[in-house]
Write a structure and sequence with these properties.
heterotrimer, A mainly alpha, B alpha/beta, C mainly alpha, A: mainly alpha, C: MetI-like fold, about 0% strand, transmembrane helix (chain C), MetI-like_sf (chain C), MetI-like (chain C)
Chain lengths: ~260, ~375, ~325
């Protein structure tokens, strides 16, 4: 019985892998198509789109620009979001529902509207369009996602642990840093992935708050105007590989760092 | 095969670069301007890369291009930036002028400052839509039109002579169109003025006509595969053979033809509408002087116009630009005299009333 | 038994704290500026709370509420941006327009219905995947297999949406496959239906469901299930009475995320949907794109949308937390 379940579930898992990868494989496949348009049948193949991507300094600098924006905005969102989650979870106080409502607000507003609202507000605050403005808008927009994920994890933290620490004389800050924060690490990591993805893929806020330097999605939208060409797929493929490399490097790096501090 | 087409494309690129470099006007090289920069909002490939490099080298003016993907976003962005815009030159379609002008976002164009204004075909530079409130507002660069595109493997040229084929049972669920644009065409097809200028003083009449066009599209809704918005969408639908004919702009259709796809396009006998992309100078533009230098330079030779056509598929407004196109490119950007005779340009005078009626009608069609 | 687990963990927490004196933390706690700071902060529970609450309240008021007030403000005006030489007036017309015209209701309810349906589909699809990962895969491989699933999500929404098109189109991969193995002679029109749209949205949102579910399932002690099995509960009963209730928190947060993201989607439904699948985001965007000078109406419609989504979310969260409290006891 148990083994049958297990086999069934592993089939479901691999079917899911297939589901998420097939469109991806198609994307990579047509990036080698020798035509200005994606789709089947592919009559002849070419590397031209890739040589074009690497010859185009703009694509690569755009990629770097998007990564920097994603990392900075994620850092802000995670700190603010965790703070708000700690305030809201498990506490009853006057106005809690109002603060919760306000917290999730940025996630509820359709992109185009939030973008225009941010743009007008940024002008009111004197924030110039450009990287700072994009980072700010992404950070605000992503806070609700951090709050929801962290609150879910926080709600399962056994209260007795904090109490035990407090009984031993730890002040609230130490108790938070030593007990709560380590417990939250998986949720914070998960939330960071959300934020990085949301920022990296955001078009409409980046467009309205950006200056003359495009982010990757802004560049792709602009290129899309003259047709969905394999060039866009090639850009996406290169971006995917670069992100994977950066991701693996970051993972290795933090692991080594951890080992060194522990050892 | 791969090699061959690779060479073909490279050859074209080289030809384009060469011709533009040749065309760089001598007076620009002499009159080395004060430097500085010029900020432009435009579509991908509307400023040819080779021209940009040449211009920067000749004048010392840095060209900052911000790529945009539709008219509405440019309007929203500029509205949010005024009264201190970051932009000097933007790309507006002729029939959207009025909206920008009414919101006080554009500066009138002083054509006296453009020595090369005469290089534009007068059909575009002096036509009725281009003068508003006694002023010129933009320099026409590319011309587009609403056409009927069809896959030649499935649809005959004869069938494509009329818009009715788009609504026939024979091609049920193999068609697509942009509803907003189709509303104007349907009105024209029914014998009315799709620009609605004729009904400016007769609002009831205007409302009745829009209602009639709306009912027509609702009645034929079961036959359509997709209401779409952008050129890339209809290209993909043709490539995937989700549709075999559809209403489109000529630019995206020309791009498919130039890539060797079995497609053709016509201006059907009932007629259609054209529009013109223009470079406009923003009100309170930070570098207005450089903007004029840029405009004069980009208008300086037909080769530059041809390069824009090659990249976008739209028809150049420059005199003699077609002399610099390949045969296939000529084919995808030319129409017979008979077809052109039935073409009119979009006009903006009645837009407030027209879109006040059409936008709710579009919502109703989508909801029907 | 759960008491034992908790007390064991408490013991561990206490022992780490006892070691604290020798470590960084110990030094920090004994450092006098920190002591002064902690004394100031922790003087009373009231002050602790105030200090904890001050920053979040300031943040949500200035950063979250500020832009929205601006938008809601616009929704009550008759013109925005104000053209030169004209005056702006306050009005309720923009809201009246929604309630007065039934053509706007269909996209509105369709959006809520679609978002809820697609959220449910995503849940059904990803729960077994998360379950398998968390319960049947060794710790070492879990991270790897999870990361494998994350890869496609690094590709942008637009590119993946077009990938769905070349998957489902008439000459798309699926139709090509079915034709080549002789199952069909004419292509099946998958595209531009609520199916292709749902497929796209589920594809784009699956991750936002998968991660919360995984993290909820992962921390569920295996011993619970074993205990239930010892008591003679069958697999289905164990799942329904033990696993499901204990992962309600993950389900609730995943569903909320996916629902919110799905209601806000614009490009994917526009690109993958058909003539009769218009969603409300498209209606709203229409006021900003095509018409251009109808920002106030667009702002009013957006306000209606987010208030509705907020209500749905709050009701759903309440329901889930009631369910949790009722079941776990």
């Amino acid at each position: 019985m148990n083994r049958g379940n297990r086999v069934l579930l592993s089939c479901v898992y691999w079917a899911f892998v297939l589901y998420v990868f097939v469109p991806l494989i198609l994307m990579v496949l047509v990036s080698f198509k020798d035509s200005k348009f994606i789709g089947f049948p592919i009559r002849s193949w070419t590397f031209e789109w890739y040589t074009g991507v690497f010859a185009d300094a703009q694509v690569l600098s755009t990629f770097g620009y998007s990564v920097v924006i994603a990392v900075l905005s994620t850092a802000i969102s995670v700190v603010v979001g965790t703070w708000i989650a700690v305030l809201l979870e498990g506490r009853r106080f006057w106005g809690r529902a109002v603060i919760f409502g306000l917290t999730v607000l940025p996630a509820l507003v359709p992109g185009i509207i939030s973008a225009i609202a941010f743009r007008i507000y940024a002008r009111g605050l004197g924030i110039e369009p450009g990287m700072g403005a994009i980072v700010w808008a992404h950070a605000v927009h992503n806070v609700p996602f951090v709050v929801l994920v962290v609150m879910a994890r926080l709600s399962t933290l056994p209260k007795s642990q904090i109490e035990a620490a407090r009984d031993l004389g730890a002040d609230p800050l130490i108790a938070f840093l030593r007990i709560t924060l380590p417990y939250l690490v998986p949720a914070i990591l998960g939330a960071s992935i959300f934020c990085l993805l949301l920022s990296f893929d955001d078009f409409v806020r980046s467009f309205f708050l950006g200056g003359y330097e495009p982010t990757l999605p802004v560049l792709i939208f602009a290129k899309l105007r003259s047709g969905m060409s394999p060039e866009i797929n090639a850009i996406a493929t290169v971006a995917l590989i670069l992100t994977a490399v950066v991701g693996i490097w970051a993972e290795r790096f933090t692991r080594r760092l951890k080992k060194e501090t522990e050892g | 095969m791969t090699k061959l087409s690779l060479n073909r494309r490279h050859l074209l690129k080289a030809a384009a670069i060469g011709s533009v470099a040749l065309a760089s006007p001598a007076y620009l090289r002499r009159a080395h301007a004060s430097g500085g920069e010029v900020n432009i909002w435009t579509y991908n490939n509307f400023v040819p890369e080779s021209f940009k490099k040449q211009f920067e080298a000749d004048t010392g003016i840095k060209v900052n291009v911000r790529l945009v993907d539709d008219q509405g976003k440019q309007f929203n962005l500029l509205a949010a930036e005024q009264p201190n815009p970051t932009v000097d030159i933007m790309t507006v379609a002729g029939h959207r002028f009025l909206q920008f002008i009414d919101s006080d976002l554009l500066a009138p164009l002083d054509t006296g400052r453009l020595k090369n204004w005469g290089n534009i075909n007068p059909t575009f530079s002096e036509s009725d839509w281009s003068t508003i409130k006694g002023n010129k507002w933009g320099a026409p660069i590319l011309s587009g039109m609403e056409v009927l595109s069809y896959n030649t493997d499935y649809v005959s040229a004869e069938e494509a002579r009329t818009w009715d084929t788009l609504f026939s049972e024979k091609y049920a669920n193999q068609t697509a169109y942009i509803i907003q644009d189709m509303m104007s065409i349907i009105m024209l097809k029914m014998g009315y003025d799709g620009n609605m200028v004729a009904y400016l003083d007769k609002p009831e009449e205007a409302a009745r006509i829009v209602e009639e066009a709306k009912q027509f599209l609702i009645k034929h809704k079961p036959l359509v595969r997709k209401y779409y918005d952008g050129g890339a969408e209809i290209q993909q639908m043709f490539v995937n053979q989700d549709i075999v004919l559809g209403h489109s702009w000529n630019g995206p259709a020309a791009a498919l033809i130039n890539d060797g796809f079995p497609l053709d396009m016509t201006i059907p006998k009932e007629g259609s509408y054209g529009f013109v992309y223009t470079y406009n100078i923003a009100k309170n533009a930070p570098n207005a002087d450089n903007a004029y230098i840029f405009l004069d330079a980009i208008l300086s030779s037909p080769e530059i116009g041809a390069a824009m056509t090659k990249a976008s598929g739209y028809i150049s407004t420059y005199k003699d630009a077609s002399n610099h196109l390949t045969d296939l490119e000529k084919k995808s950007t030319s129409f017979t005299d008979e077809e052109l005779a039935s073409l009119q340009f979009f006009r903006a005078e009645a837009n407030k009333m027209k879109y006040g009626l059409i936008d709710p009608a579009v919502e109703a069609i989508k909801a029907a | 038994m759960s008491y034992d687990a908790a007390s064991a963990r408490n013991e561990r927490a206490a022992s780490t704290l006892r070691q604290a004196d020798r470590t960084f933390w110990g030094r920090l706690v004994n450092w006098s500026p920190y002591r002064a700071f902690a004394g100031l902060v922790a003087a009373s529970p009231r002050r602790q709370f105030l200090i904890l609450a001050l920053f979040p309240i300031l943040w949500v008021l200035t950063q979250h509420l500020g832009p929205m007030i601006q938008m809601v403000g616009v929704s009550f005006t008759d013109a925005y941006p104000v053209a030169a030489g004209t005056e702006q007036h306050l009005t309720l017309d923009n809201y009246a327009r929604f309630f007065g015209d039934s053509i706007f209701w269909m996209p509105f309810f369709r959006t809520l219905f679609f978002a809820a349906t697609f959220t449910f589909c995503t849940l059904i699809l990803t729960y077994p995947v998360a379950y398998y990962l968390a319960r049947h895969v060794s710790r070492k491989n879990q991270m790897l297999m999870l990361l494998l699933l994350l890869i496609p999500f690094w590709v942008g929404e637009i590119v993946r949406t077009y990938a769905i098109m070349i998957l489902l189109g008439n000459t798309g991969a699926v139709n090509l496959l079915l034709r080549s193995i002789g199952l069909i002679d004419r292509p099946i029109p998958f595209m531009y239906t609520s199916f292709s749209m749902g497929m796209g949205i589920v594809y784009l949102t699956a991750l936002y469901m998968l991660l919360p579910l995984y993290s909820a399932l992962e921390k569920l002690p295996k011993s619970y299930n074993e205990a239930a099995a010892d008591l003679g509960a069958g697999a289905w009963t164990r799942f329904r009475r033990v696993t499901l209730p204990l992962t309600i928190e993950g389900i609730s947060s995943g569903c909320t995320l996916v629902f919110l993201i799905a209601t806000g989607f614009y490009a994917t439904p526009v690109l993958l949907g058909g003539p009769s699948t218009t969603v409300f985001a498209e209606t709203i965007a229409g006021f900003f794109h095509v018409a251009g000078d109808e920002w106030p109406t667009g702002a009013a419609f957006a306000t209606i949308m987010f208030v509705s989504a907020l209500i749905v979310t709050v009701v759903f969260q309440r329901l889930m937390s009631a369910l949790r409290k009722g079941d776990v006891k």
